[in-house]
Amino acid sequence: MMEGTAAEYHSKDFEWEELRDEVENDASLRYHIVPFVASSSSSSPSSDPPPDDADAWRSFHRRHSAGKFFKERRYLLKEFPELLCSGNSIQVLELGCGNGSTILPILRAKESIVVYACDCSEEVLQRAKEIVATTSGVSLDHRLHTFLLDFTVHKFPDWLFCSSCQRASFSKPVNLSSDSREQKLRKLNAPSFLREEQCCIGGVDFVTLIFTLSAIPFQRMSSVIEKCFFVLKPGCLLLFRDYGLYDMTMLRFLPEQRMGFREYMRSDGTFSYFFSLDIVRDLFLGAGFTEAKYKHDRQVVVNGPPTSKQLLLWAV
């Protein structure tokens, strides 16, 4: 699929089962599917990753500071029309926003959408704000709020959905007296856009995980998904799109870049994981989500190889 306004959108250009058979019967690709055995020179997938693994992505963003590495994802609304069908005052949390390639089409979709975007790189957050602020044709910057966060390690800030409002939303008793001091303390770290009477924004309507989950070590994925669950309002959606098993990106990795079961490390130290439907379901159902919609995108890139993407919606 080509990026750009003139691109055609396809969701099924080939049969995934044929690609699977081709890969699994190719002896030169066998190393992708045999059981993984950690060598003395590689990290075991069961061991804890180094605490500074996000440094690889910070370095990546510094190398691509011009913000042109990732193109705007203009196909996003075709894949997730739910963003257009929602009512007024829509609040979206974008995880791993990078240079804003996912943010722009969401902000363009409706003037009632506000996006809260986080990343582990302060430089790329600044670049995302600059790109949005200078986008021609419509004023978008007042509807974008960025914040620095390595969500693989730290929890989301309380101003997104404080514990009192979470319990109230799920019809559980709320001890206002015990929470009053907590709320006052939280206000000290509250962002400027939060109104004086607000303890938090009351949760979000959508969380977007667009090619983000695959970029973190597998053993941290469950924790990240659980955090997403608790920041969503009841009945709202998580939008997920990421690499599927046997994507050509996966098949380009060399044997020595394999770090675990379907997990690889690029030469710059960044991770990449490739999902099967069963793994995705286990991760999200285990965090409390229910499956709302699933589609497996199978696309042939113009002047390029087949790609396999997992596209799902998960509801609280």
Automatic annotation (TrEMBL):
Protein name in UniProt: tRNA N(3)-methylcytidine methyltransferase
The enzyme's E.C. designation: 2.1.1.-
GO molecular function: RNA methyltransferase activity; S-adenosylmethionine-dependent methyltransferase activity
GO biological process, one term: methylation
Family per similarity comment: Belongs to the methyltransferase superfamily. METL family.
General function of this protein: S-adenosyl-L-methionine-dependent methyltransferase.
EC category: transferase
Keywords carried by this UniProt record: Methyltransferase, Transferase
The keyword Cell wall biogenesis/degradation is assigned to this record: no
